[in-house]
Amino acid sequence: MVVAVFILAAAVIAVVGSKMTKTADQLADITGLGEAIFGAVFLGGCTSLPGIVTSVVTAYQGYPELSLSNAVGGIAAQTTFLAIADIFHRRVNLEHAAASVENLVQGSLLVTLLAIPLFAATTPDVTFLKIHPATPVLLAAYIMGIRLVAKSRSVPLWKPENTKETKVDTPDKDTLENRSRASIWSRFAISAAVVAVAGYAVAQTGIVLADETGLSQTVVGGLFTALATSLPELVTSVAAVRQGALTLAVGGIIGGNSFDVIFVAIADISYRQGSIYHAVTDRQIFIISLTIILTGILLMGLLRREKHGIGNIGFESFLVIFLYLGAFTLLFFSQ
Predict the structure, then answer these.
(1) Residue 231 lies inside a defined structural domain of this protein
(2) 173 lies in some domain
(3) What is the pLDDT of residue 136?
(4) CATH number where 40 lies
(5) How far is CA 30 from CA 96, 184, 279, in A?
(6) 3-state helix/strand/coil string of the chain
(7) What are the backbone angles phi and psi of residue 131, rounded to the nearest 5°?
(8) Number of domain units in the chain
(9) What angle do CA 267, 271, 274 make, to 5 degrees?
């Protein structure tokens, strides 16, 4: 029954999450924010709701390893999903076509945010109201970083060279003339609410799976719940690529990943037994380190802008998939 509920909740997240892509693309044009920023803040934030709920619930109920593994494991999974989306863009490598200064800034922000929990784990276990000082620092760093992303779009001091394969983010005229903007926002909000409820179901079933199967919290959180709660990112990134919204696909993943690091800060607030950063084990540090490596490879791909690579995908996509599968195979068999 628990496995059935877990699979059902994951299916709901996948189906409803996929419907958010088209409305997100429309809202990116309507608001004037552009695909990269809207994908990072709104689409990335809303598709991350299942993961937020899972990390907060599990932290509050005293499962810090499961909470952190879900948060950071989701980032690793979503980075891999972007490599999978690259497979569906056959004309040229996705990182070549969707290169933008906003996505590069977001990737740099993600690496910076991921380093903060690692830094906090090595500092003295000091808390105020059972909250570690790294938590407000993490939240402030995210807000400042998003402001930098927005500024890089409005006042760009650097931009990638456009080629005939570059997909520039331009507003759709039909969308701008659409008068039913309230209904578009309503559909987006309802979808977000549904995936959040499904995320709560994933959290509860994930706890039971960790207790009853004998699998470690790291494996359940970093692999099973992380993949389940990250399904919207897989579906929306592939759907965005098929719709030609390439910047939205890349921005939604990278920006959503930066948003996902906030899970750790929120989980620290929810964890009532002290600092969640000092409840981490070597396995969580392993996953965070893996995620930094995957993000670095993705950034190199965005900068290198290779048109065709191994199996008609970029070298970065091949390496990301290889490292992700290898790392979690190692985790699974070494528990």
Answers:
(1) yes
(2) no
(3) 94
(4) 1.20.1420.30
(5) 26, 10, 44
(6) CHHHHHHHHHHHHHHHHHHHHHHHHHHHHHHCCCHHHHHHHHHHHHHCHHHHHHHHHHHHCCCHHHHHHHHHHHHHHHHHHHHHHHHHCCCCCHHHHCCCHHHHHHHHHHHHHHHHHHHHHCCCCCCECCECCHHHHHHHHHHHHHHHHHHHHHCCCCCCCCCCCCCCCCCCHHHHCCCCHHHHHHHHHHHHHHHHHHHHHHHHHHHHHHHHHCCCHHHHHHHHHHHHHCHHHHHHHHHHHHHCCHHHHHHHHHHHHHHHHHHHHHHHHHCCCCCHHHHCCHHHHHHHHHHHHHHHHHHHHHHHCCCCCHHHCCHHHHHHHHHHHHHHHHHHHCC
(7) -120, 130
(8) 1
(9) 125
pTM exceeds 0.85 for this model: no
Q: Which residue has the higher pLDDT, 136 or 249?
A: 136
Identify the CA nearest to 233 among candidates 5, 36, 13: 13
What is the structure's pLDDT at 169?
47
Structural domain range at position 50 = 2-155+186-333
Most confident of 15-19, 85-89, 178-182, 262-266: 262-266
Tell me if 110 is assigned to some domain: yes
Residue with tokens 């696909």: 249
Reading the block at residue 190, the tokens are 């309802």
Distance between CA 72 and CA 284 in Å, rounded? 8
Q: Is residue 79 part of a domain?
A: yes
Confidence class for position 112, pLDDT limits 50, 70, 90:
very high
Half-sphere exposure of 187 (CA within 13 A, CB side): 16
Q: Distance (Å, rounded) from C-alpha 171 to C-alpha 184?
A: 16
Using the predicted structure, report yes or no on whether residue 26 has a pLDDT greater than 70: no
The whole-number pLDDT of residue 176 equals 47
